[in-house]
Amino acid sequence: MSQIPTPTRVNSRALAIALLLAALLAGEAAAIDVQVVGVSPGSSAEVAIDGNAPITIGVGETIEGVTLISADRRGAVVQVGGVKRTLPLVSYRGPTREGAGDTITLRADKAGHFLAEGSINGRRVVFLVDTGATTVAISRPDAERLGIDYRSGQPVLSETANGIGRGWRVTLDSVAIGGTTVHNVVADVTDSSMSVALLGMTFLNHFDMQRSGATLVLRRR
Predict the structure, then answer these.
(1) Rounded to whole angstroms, how far apart are CA atoms 220 and 104?
(2) Phi and psi at residue 59, in whole multiples of 5°?
(3) How is the chain split into domains, by residue range?
(4) CB atoms within 10 A of CB 72
């Protein structure tokens, strides 16, 4: 006949399991390398996680399992896996592992839009991130300024705020933002008036995107 565990045994077993889980969580949190490399006291911090390029985290935001609790001129307090850490401000020495650094961190403007300065074929362009755009899209005047031979591209019809407009589908040699470059990017040159270029999915599909509050992080796949 099997023996029924006494309440003392049950409680001891539950306590042992709880301690083991706590140890595992603490070990997982300790395994994540976090460095604070810049601060905006009271609002945000530049944080390098596991040797990757720094990303901006606002107070109260969580990115890649790291929550920023507070930031001041000396450093920041973060929480990882339920464990709080007080980290000093240190100098960033660049990516520490192979393949790191292909990270783009963007902050939303007051209207909630993510704008980024970059380049097309080596020439400066201002982009607006648009996950609803199938391709990168630029206006005809911008294409002419950039020296793109769009008239030799494939004629297409594009839907704009003013209705259906004509355009040309081309392949750009390069699109770069924040030191990260994607080559052979399909784009549409449109006849519509646009003050900025649209950073559509033919570029964004090369990245994993993570948004937390006013921060958008793109990590190269």
Answers:
(1) 9
(2) -60, 130
(3) 1-31, 32-88, 103-220
(4) 13
Region of poorest pLDDT, from 46-50, 58-62, 98-102, 210-214: 98-102
Neighbours of 10 (CB within 10 A): 11
Indicate the burial class of 186 (C-beta count within 10 angstroms; 0-12, 13-18, 19 or more).
middle
Q: Report the phi/psi class of residue 110: left, alpha or beta, with left for phi > 0 and alpha for psi in -120 to 50.
A: alpha
If you classify domain 103-220 with CATH, what class do you get? mainly beta
Query: What is the C-alpha to C-alpha distance for residues 217 and 62, in angstroms, rounded to an integer?
Result: 12
Its sign, for the CA torsion 190, 195, 201, 202, is positive
- Contact yes or no for 182/199 (Cβ under 8 A): no
- What's the pLDDT tens digit per position in 75-96? 899 999 889 999 998 866 555 4
Q: Residues near 33 by Cβ (< 8 Å), separated by ≥ 6?
A: 49, 50, 51
What would the two tokens of residue 44 be?
């945000």
**pLDDT digit string, tens, across residues 93-129:** 555 444 445 788 888 888 899 999 899 999 999 999 9
Q: How many alpha carbons fall within 13 Å on the CB side of residue 137?
A: 25
- Reported as a single tens digit per residue, the pLDDT across 148-159 is 999 999 998 876
Distance, in Å, from the CA atom of 71 to the CA atom of 57, rounded to the nearest integer, reads 10
Q: How far apart are alpha carbons 170 and 148 in whole angstroms?
A: 9
pTM recorded for the entire structure: 0.61
Decide if pLDDT at 166 tops 50: yes
Per the listing, tokens 């896996």 go with 81
